[in-house]
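Today's session is about reading a structure prediction critically. Students often jump straight to the picture, but the first step is always the sequence itself: look for stretches that repeat, for charged clusters, for runs of hydrophobic residues. Only then move on to the predicted structure, which in these notes is written as discrete structure tokens rather than atom positions. Here is the chain we will use throughout the hour.
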Amino acid sequence: MKAERESRILAEEAALQHSVTPNTAPKSRMSGLRAFWKESAPGLKENWFLMVYLVVIMTGFNSCSHGSQDFYPTFLKDQVGKTATQTTVIVVAGSLGGVIGGTLIGWISSFLGRRLTMMISCVFGAALIPAYILPRSNALIASSFWQQWFIGGVWGPIPIYLSELSPQSLRGLLVGLTYQLGNLASSASATIQAIIGERFPLPGGPHGKKRFDYGKVMAIFMGAVWVFLLVLLFLGPEMSQEERDEEEAAARELERLRREGKTLEEIGRERAGLANVKVLEDEDAKKPATYHMDEVQVDKAV
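Below is the predicted structure for this chain, in token form.
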């Protein structure tokens, strides 16, 4: 918590300042950014490999979404021959599937585990690729719904998965930062698909319009991304049940204190209190006990 972090670091600096110049009053406030950096810098140094893993896996998740959605309306209109209304219906059905699948599969991950749930979604999503591409009838409505269901399914546990893997001091930073970096890295998905599409040209459309087999392109791209995600999730880390129980106990304690009417700032300062006391005790222990020497010498003289 922000208040706990700032209180702890303020106490450490106050103790250090008191040990150097005992009669000097400590600073009354400390910059929140400075407190954040002092606590987060060691975490970034120790967990850099985890951060790289999170960015890479978020690149895969974002590529999964882009690969299945960016060229799908073009595929439906130019290659399947659907009207604008039919294309809209199919795309909206897929969006509804993504919302429902993300919600339900995210909830299921609380029982089956984050990685296992997402890996199952990867398997089903890959298996549905032919149904997402090959039909030329209204069966594409169901295909789009279920394909996006499992794409939403791999996204459902992602927020809590990122939070659980991130160190507590970096949790607010890594969740958003790794998502945005992954989104940035996946922004080339449409360009990659367009380049692949040039290798699979179709007969020209009306007025000489160039057409490409984007169905095949999406099948290749999505198949590669599903396998990529499956391997990463299989090899990746996950919070243990013991760690999850500790987080749950801490959350319940926080809610209990909130029900007692305490603010988040008060709770944070109380949590930092024990650490503050320990810091001051350690500093006092380091001071030379010169004020005892006279008493000892007097006792010896007597």
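Discussion point for the tutorial: The chain has a mean pLDDT of 80.
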